[in-house]
Amino acid sequence: MGRVPVVRLLLGLGGVTLIAVGLLNSLALGFIDLLWLGFWLGAGLVVHDGLLAPGAAGLSKVAANRWPARRRRIPLVATVTIGSLTLIALPMIMQQDAVPGNPTLLGRNYLVGWAVACLLVLAGAALAALLARLRAPRDPA
Amino acid sequence: MTALIPREETFPSRGRSPAIAARVGIWLGIAITICFVTGLLSHAAQDLVWFPWPTRPTWGYRVTQGAHVISGMAAIPLLLVKLWSVYPRLFVRPPLRSVLHALERLSIALLVASVIFQLVIGVLNIAKLYIWPFDFRAAHFAVAWIAFGALLLHIAVKLPIIRTALSRPLEADDLAPAAAGEPDDVPRTGSPASDAHAADSAEPGAPTTQTPVPRRTVLISAYVASSVAALSVAGGSIPWLSKLAVLSPSIATGPQGVPINRTAEAAGITEVAVGPNFQLTVVSEATTRGWSLDELRAMQQRTVRLPITCVEGWSTNAEWTGVRLSDLLAEVDAPADSRLRVISLQTKAAFGESIVPPQHSADPLTLLALRLNGEDLVLDHGFPCRLIAPSRPGVLQTKWVTRIEVI
To answer: How far B1 CA sits from the closest chain A CA (Å)?
Structure first.
């Protein structure tokens, strides 16, 4: 085992200390809530590793089998952007107008906002694709 | 059964490499650090009575809490791309090589789980979608320490790989594991071996489509998605971006030009409580005194321009008019820099009272406001009077104030 540089040692010790502080703080939640906290922590991992990541891998495999890399570049950027935006927007769309008697809170039309944002991303992607085509060297044939 | 579990080589992509993980990881690390630091500051401003939270700049809390929410949103796509780049490592064989390896994998699981948790419940909190039984603030605070600690630990473990990855061109082939600084600690995807596997796994007749997307494209995806996510909420805190804030929790305006986080009805405020018999009582060690609303109006009125900032990521500037808090304290022979308990008429929901630290009590901009943007406060904004102080979390700008105690 080689010598561990001081920076790494300090980072590691600092990290372990902060984790301990967090664990101590979590004790304030009480036993039942701690169990729920553990459930939520685990659920996030399971949903990502078991659902989101394989889904993304499957999607990229399908795309890779259908289109060459040069035609996947711009769609990749658009897909990652729209996918992220959708994940963030879902709770807002679900909760639109969820605060009775207070239209100033969660009172936006989040579905329309999300759709407009996605359309703008797609328009940007189309423009980028057009520019890329114009800049591409012409096929002499 | 084991045949169903993918192997590291099942994910043949040059993008899934330390070159991407290190570069996206830097921005993700910055975003998480901003979230952690601004979150601690918000905690200090709300819960640590001994913490000397400053009153200047008046927009201080607006900036720190805005940065908290914006960087949290920006972190979501960065996290997704970062996890995508290292996903094959989940299926490394053998899964556990030694106690040290087991501990390292445990720390990574803790890091990923805690960061996902923080971002998910943060977004759900903004959407007021409380689908968990535990207290949001307590859980968000505790797990923040775990997430940031696990991040530091992760950087400590991976520093040699990060350095190596950053020192090489983005599109360079990955090094063999032993050359990367630590034995067998680098994703093998993108290596010649896995490229060969990719060619093997390609469908017959479609080998040309298996060419890899440049890593630069993957990086651009992460940065564009992160910027768009940040922009979707940034307008909640940055007025000139408000038209782009399609996912901000509040609309840009409301009654008297200011959004409402908790209505009078939600706080259990009755018309009787704020009717003609309303009285504000101020209690000091020396004396106790009461004021009717008309008597408060008869005192010297001050007008200040201060932002009001919600912890969930919206803020707005407004013009407030009312009685300077230190003037009220002088009326009961209390020092201007007294620590105060401000009590609301509200009978429901949290934050029915707040503690005002000495620096805020003594500040000339701290008012017991009676008017907002040139009109008497409407009931939902805290009629007959409410607290407004510079650089203070919105939940502590107590509405429907009925009693102030020097403590």
So the answer is: 16
ipTM computed for the complex: 0.94
Q: What is the DSSP letter of B394?
A: G
Strand partners, B315: B309
Q: How far apart are CA B284 and CA B403, in angstroms?
A: 11
Residue numbers of A between 18 and 77 with CB closer than 8 Å to B: 18-23, 25-26, 28-29, 32-33, 36-37, 40-42, 44-45, 48-49, 52-53, 56-57, 60, 64-69, 72-73, 76-77
Give A119's contacts in chain B (Cβ within 8 Å).
Answer: none
Mind listing the pLDDT tens digit of every residue in chain A (141 residues)?
457 799 999 999 999 999 999 999 999 999 999 999 999 999 999 999 999 999 999 998 899 888 888 889 999 999 999 999 999 999 999 998 888 888 888 888 999 999 999 999 999 999 999 998 898 776 554
CA-angle at B134, arms to B128 and B136, nearest 5°: 45
Instruction: Please name the member of B109, B117, B220 whose beta carbon is closest to the beta carbon of A77.
Output: B220
Structure tokens given for B341: 């308990």
Q: Inspect the interface and report whether the beta carbons of A95 and B116 lie closer than 8 Å.
A: no
Q: Which residues contact B161 (CB under 8 A, 6 or more apart)?
A: B18, B22, B180, B181, B182, B185, B186
Interchain pair B76, A88: CB under 8 A = yes
Strands B280-283 and B401-406: parallel
Best mutation target among B10, B116, B159 (most A Cβ atoms within 10 Å) is B116
Please say whether the dihedral angle defined by the alpha carbons of residues B48, B51, B54 and B59, taken in this order, is positive or negative.
Answer: negative
Residues B362 and B337 sit within 8 Å (Cβ to Cβ):
yes
Please provide the DSSP assignment of B103-121 as one string: HHHHHHHHHHHHHHHHHHH
- What b/e sequence results for A65-96 when a residue is b if at least 16 CB atoms lie within 10 Å of its CB, and e otherwise? eebebeebbbbbbbbbbbbbbebbbbbbbebb
* The pLDDT value given to residue A2: 59
Q: 3-state DSSP call for residue B343?
A: strand
Helices (H), B249-357: 293-298, 325-331
Task: For residue A98, give how far its alpha carbon lies from the nearest alpha carbon of chain B (Å).
Answer: 8
Residue ranges of chain B with pLDDT lower than 70?
A: 1-3, 12, 175-210, 251-252
pLDDT of residue B351: 86
Amino acid B142 reads A
At B205 the pLDDT is 38
- Pairs of residues, one from chain A and one from chain B, whose beta carbons lie less than 8 Å apart: 239
Q: Are B396 and B390 in contact (CB under 8 A)?
A: no
Q: Which residue of A has its CA nearest to B85?
A: A53
Residues A78, B225: Cα–Cα separation, whole Å: 8
Encode B166-176: b = buried (16+ Cβ within 10 Å), e = exposed. Answer: eebebeeebbe
- Report chain B's terminal Cα–Cα distance, integer Å: 67
